[in-house]
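So, is this right?
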Amino acid sequence: MLIAFNKPYGVLSQFTDSEDRATLADYINQSDVYPVGRLDRDSEGLMLLTDDGVLQAKISSPGKNWPKTYLAQVEGIPTAAAIKQLTDGICLKGGRTRPAVVEVLPGKPGWLWPRPVSVAPRKGKHVSWLKLTITEGRNRQVRRMTAAVGLPTLRLVRIAIGQFTISGLAPGIWKECVQGQY
């Protein structure tokens, strides 16, 4: 079984929590499925869950290079130099990242839902939107990459993992993916 889930802001990407915060169990009533990778509590968007350990390893193993695509609302105006750094790879603690595919968007995508907790840039700072695709999954990688080039991330939404997308999934909604799609 493979499930695509649109994780809302503020939800932990695990099924239990000792601090009584929102978890996957508040949204997904399937037993014996486990997250394929993670999304931070303050990040939103696509998560995959499966009961197939081989598939989980295939998708989440660093050497498999499954692309993960994000929309990032950043503080600041992306310069050509910043974009080049992102597309070349960034030196972070733990080594250089693989190159990212980066597109500067003209604004917030019209289909994107409002965030329940608004994110405001610092006074006098411009907000921009980037679409980034990476093939790694380091801890808070996109946030660390954009911060390293002077564009701190204000909002982060994962919209795709490989061929799987959040298309048609509102926040908090999940669907079973058809077998053979992977």
